[in-house]
Amino acid sequence: MDDAAPSSTRVEDLIQALGPLPTAWNIEELCLSLSTRRRRPLVLHPMNLPALPFGLWYDDGISDHIIYRSTVMGFHRDHVILHEICHMLARHTQIPLAAGPGGAGRASVRGAGEFAARINPYTARQEETAESFATLILEKAYRLNPAPVSAFEHRASAVFGTA
Predict the structure, then answer these.
(1) Where along the chain do its domains lie?
(2) Residue 107, SS3?
């Protein structure tokens, strides 16, 4: 069934396809490494497009482009980019677009609210796979190089049981 939870094996296979994570977490470094391994440019485009989804992956036939809202920062930004990378690596269903510089292009879109529901070409399972992928990558990255945590954050972790 398509709406079933994604298989953890499938998500782990996609994580393996990503290659090694940078020891000091840096999404740009990860994208450069992935681009080199795939022998295909992967370009990040921060744009101030509040009416569009949080993220969009576009394949112009030559390069992969990930467009994300420039107002999204930190963990959320990295999560959006990783989500789109998952769709790219998994070769999830895409929207055919008009021919561009490299020929017929394809794109994926991700966002929130009614707009995303109208234009989201993915199944619930594909979206869940991309969400799991992005979350697991960031968890692994944090374990490799944990960020310093303040005393307040330690206390909050203890209160909410996440310590």
Answers:
(1) 8-160
(2) strand
